[in-house]
């Protein structure tokens, strides 16, 4: 990509930052996302029980700002078929599908292809998830029409149902492993439903917290009905999930999934704070990522494995799988926030930076060798996550400074 | 201006205690409560302090300080916790503890080995804390403002957004703690009961919110609808917690039902009592503002008919949209609204007392009865 194009794009992004401190994106910043991507995969490869192999080359983005001509390929992660640690005799390969099939990422990690036959996991789980949204709506039956409408807003069938898909596939795997049963138990299916409901409740509240106005390609609940009702809707979905959880009738499962709710909130709190010490920052970020995203997937996988199989080793494996998939998922999501555009994401891009949140790419950028680049990163952190209480005049001053800085970075 | 006032009422004013209004007349009430606290042998005002000492909440407390000087309602709620000692009673928790003690030890299985302190099982104490946590969480969640409705007189937008963020986070934190403690009780029926209570509470608050919308002065609801909505927002949590407390000690279904009824009718009486305060207090000064959807007003409307009531409201509004509460109060007092509200309050009180009869006589039961007497006293 031409350096002139880089700078222009960076300037455009810089102008969108309101209230957050100086963006770290110097000219090198964009190429760092590539490095970040590679690093992200190595982080996710630290799973002790599974080794990730990846292929990735992404298609060009149709956004006018950037043009690529790489052929489209989906990236895949496969579990090795025969591994001494991995006891599952035959595990369906779980392709790593990102939000959108094309991103504007200019990464070209070298590929490895496993000899597993690729099967679309969403197709595999389709039978079990066919009536997912109808079943969720049954849990949300309430007499007040508007409240019901708000709660059902995100259960319109347009979501990816990524978490339920993982849950039912894990359930199947555990059932086959334990008793060669090809059925999914009703309680395991409930766990999938509960996971999706907890996730959605947290989305609704997150949108109020971040004052977001679009998600999944449409307006957020707080945008349409106001913040007060949005918070109530989130609480209601959570209470319905909790009720469904109680009805499963298993106290262990209740404990496992309640842990998720606590982790979600603690993760949000972790996001409020930041660490000054560079070495702690990455650990802090990973912990936050685990709590906010991975905990739900990890614990739901663990819950269905408990229901399907009595062996605690299997529970642990399911947990580790879910945890690492979740962390990897979030890492890529953070990268996409930089590289994709709003049309593809369904929500505004560069949202994290706008909120002053230091995510994976930013942290990697801070490990740059150039002192200036590092100084920029320091600025992002020190100005704290609440950096939005700045006045308009200082914003203009910032933009002026940014122009000067970028001009000199040529 | 009065729109903002109604909004405030809809939020319940962010106070502790059973409802948005003040407690029953000061002297006998605090006496009742302090005696009750002695009986349960546990300083209830320290309940849920364990979670209050957590890092997250001290983080929040620091951040909430930034809200000082703004108009975000979270500040009122927080202030209410700290300064409002008169109202700073953890009523719900206290009632749950009392009813646990009044029901006595479990008669179900001999193998029921749980530790009991002052006649109350530790699981029941935990449940009392959980009830308070949930109640507090929703007090906090009530204090959220709609960004789209803010005017320039409300202050900078960023402050309100920040306040919302803090309110959502702290409410969620309290709820998450409640859920975790619930899971530790290892009883799925109790989890079911309390989860459904949370659902009821949400619906009740939803009705509260809708009632305080700017467009309609007052809802066209009769007293039976009012009772259903108030049950959801004010009674469901306590009633189901009382029932859950019985379940934890494996008491019979009849006992659970009686506990439920006590919780329900006692809290209905309490709400009626606080709604009646502006109408029964002798004060020569300006009348207290009151919600136009309070019980006496709703009953008054039922007797008078909606059109006549709307006419009275308009007359009280006068010019400049400023509500003359004194005038409206006189109008309501002149009708049958106040007396029938008092009757309704006493009726619920009697039902609560009737439910208590199935409990064996004890100090705890007497304390519960005293609470009912305190909320039905109007002199």
TrEMBL record, chain B:
GO terms for biological process: cerebellum development; isoprenoid biosynthetic process; regulation of body fluid levels; ubiquinone biosynthetic process. It holds the Pfam family polyprenyl_synt. The keyword Transferase applies. The keyword Plastid does not apply. Keywords: Transferase. One of its GO terms (cellular component) is ubiquinone biosynthesis complex. InterPro entries: Isoprenoid_synthase_dom_sf, Polyprenyl_synt. GO terms for molecular function: all-trans-decaprenyl-diphosphate synthase activity; all-trans-nonaprenyl-diphosphate synthase (geranyl-diphosphate specific) activity; prenyltransferase activity; protein heterodimerization activity. It comes from the Eukaryota. Belongs to the FPP/GGPP synthase family. This is Mutant decaprenyl diphosphate synthase subunit 2. It comes from Gallus gallus (Chicken). The lineage of its organism: Eukaryota, Metazoa, Chordata, Craniata, Vertebrata.
